[in-house]
Amino acid sequence: MTSVLIAGGASGIGAATAARLRATGADVHVADINPAGAAEVVRAQAHHPGSGTAGYCDLSTADGPGQAVAEALDAHGRLDAVVFCAGLLVETELPGFTVAEWDRTMALNLRAPFLMAQAAAPALAASPHGRVVLTGSTAAFRGGGGSFAYAASKGGLVALTRSLAVAMGPDGTCVTCVCPGWIDTPFNDPYWQRVGGREGALDALRSRIPLGEQGRPEDVADVIAFLVSPGSRYLTGQAVVVDGGLLAS
Ligand SMILES: NC(=O)c1ccc[n+]([C@@H]2O[C@H](COP(=O)([O-])OP(=O)(O)OC[C@H]3O[C@@H](n4cnc5c(N)ncnc54)[C@H](O)[C@@H]3O)[C@@H](O)[C@H]2O)c1
User: Which of 81, 119, 181, 219 would be 131's cystine partner, CB 3.0–4.6 Å?
Assistant: First the structure.
């Protein structure tokens, strides 16, 4: 039985990943700043084999990622994979972007995945197929006028993925960074607000995506499920883009 920690699994891509992995029989611990949402994700999958647990965690604190790892180990006795899905998107025009917004973004989007991988490393090394899957973004590869700290944090996450892969490879742990394009979750609400509303911007967005629509959280969860699986044993240190062709256009 595979045991997976999903950090930021109460909503969107993390919640879809929890559902996808529970359906394969995995044990899953969902850690999130929204404990009611995390508990609901676990409850909704209770009919599957394996077990699900949930807990409160503020991953943006220095201790939060380590606490999430410790709780997952307490709950399930071992850890084969950690999936980091939490993220913060601040959308502010250049003159008004604050140091506090920059620091909050970096603490969650970049420091926390590092601390989680660091804390989980010994447990993952003991697994026959240890995996770290981080959630980047196409923002790592293209600019967005307003998402300065977000784009920088996701670019940093792709670089971090490579260094973690080098450090953890000798223990047999694979490290990858799934990079979604536009996925239909509440996450992009700050962007819709900055550009004057979702409805007006959606047609222009669709016209830039070769597959013609936003992705669903399940589209990313399916790729994460592969990255977590033993079948991805020779894939490490890479960003895997899931964007309906956006970056190709
Ligand atoms: N939705 C998209 O279009 C998109 C595109 C590219 C990348 N991503 C990335 O995918 C990841 C997941 O995004 P999503 O669309 O599923 O977002 P979402 O808002 O649906 O889910 C994010 C989850 O993270 C949790 N969270 C936020 N701050 C936290 C904290 N401090 N501690 C613990 N949990 C916290 C939230 O409660 C929520 O459950 C993010 O890293 C995001 O940057 C999303």
Answer: 81
Backbone angles phi and psi of 241, in degrees to 5 = -85, 130
- What average pLDDT does this structure show over 206-226? 97
Q: Is 234 a catalytic residue?
A: no
The strand pairing partners of 5, in sequence order, are 29, 82
How far apart (Å, rounded) are the C-alpha atoms in residues 65 and 116? Answer: 5
Which of ligand 1's atoms lies nearest the C-alpha of 89? Answer: 43
Query: CA-based angle 14:19:20, to the nearest 5?
Result: 95
- Asked whether the whole model's pTM tops 0.70, one would answer yes
**pLDDT tens digits, 148-192:** 999 999 999 999 999 999 999 999 999 999 999 999 999 999 899
Determine contact, residues 103/81, Cβ cutoff 8 Å.
Answer: no
Kindly state the DSSP code that residue 110 receives in the 8-state scheme: I
pLDDT greater than 90 at residue 129 = yes
User: From the CA of 170, how far away is ligand 1's center (Å)?
Assistant: 30
Instruction: Report which protein residue has its CA nearest ligand 1's atom 2.
Output: 183
Could you give the domains of the chain? 3-248 (3.40.50.720)
